[in-house]
Amino acid sequence: MTTGRREFLTTVSQAIGASVLLGASASEAFAQQPAPTVGEVIDLILKTIPGAPFPKTVDTLKSGNASQKVTGIITTMFATVEVIRKAIATNANFIIAHEPTFYNHLDETAWLEQDDVYKYKRDLLEKHSIAVWRFHDYIHSHVPDGVRMGVMTALGYEKYYDEKNPRVFTVPFLKLKDIVANAKQKLGIPTVRVIGDMDQSCQRILLLPGASGGRSHIQGIESEKPDLLIIGELSEWETAEYVRDARLKGDKLALIVLGHAVSEEPGLEWMVSFLQPKVPGIKVTHIPSGNPFLFA
Prior knowledge:
InterPro entries: DUF34/NIF3, DUF34/NIF3_sf, TAT_signal
GO molecular function, one term: metal ion binding
CATH superfamily of the largest domain: NIF3 (NGG1p interacting factor 3)-like
Family: Belongs to the GTP cyclohydrolase I type 2/NIF3 family.
Mean pLDDT: 90
Structural class: alpha/beta
Distance between the termini: 29 Å
Binding site for a divalent metal cation: 98, 260, 264
Protein name: Putative GTP cyclohydrolase 1 type 2, NIF3 family
Helix content: 40-55%
């Protein structure tokens, strides 16, 4: 992480106000007990989230239990087998993952009981007493949204941040090809998918990392009138076709599709700077799960 990103994250953390005060007082208490439980760490996080705990959420424990003592914390996008193995190697027994562990949004496993891949992963977690907690709804409900903060700073857009409209960035006029090159370099990805004229100028950028869905993308385009929409993932028969038709109509609208995992991973890296001061006796480490695809 660059010095500039660290400085910005510090500024954002200071601006959170009451959330930080809660975290600070909790940190003092935790300093007196070097081995908090999984449940205590989760409760500490939830104290910084407006309206938490939510009555309905996917952010539940997927393995392990709330009463086990924490030896180390890993943040990641997906609790892949590789991430689990790295957690074991570093003696960390608590993984905070943004996305599902067992291949569906609700992490339902009844349909996977006889599946060898599921059983291998489940048994690996159980053998090494690894707790996995999903941090999806809550990190997006944090003020500011932790994922957007991470992605914004990774891309170098922090100077254009508007807290009144945090998903839109008005940048100096840049060619689409330069925005693409910056995203690939800053996020460490070999290729992206693009709709648009690579030489067209863009100034108003609508940033929607992850997979918010075609309706969200299209409604965002309608309300914000961007030159460029940057997203993580899409259904090709929704957003892509809308952007294609908009261009054929004559709109100067472009689209960059980063890929789901890489578009939100910086938010889980942001999680380290958010959580580490609250658990001073526990090492918090980010392990990127990375992109599962090769580009042939």
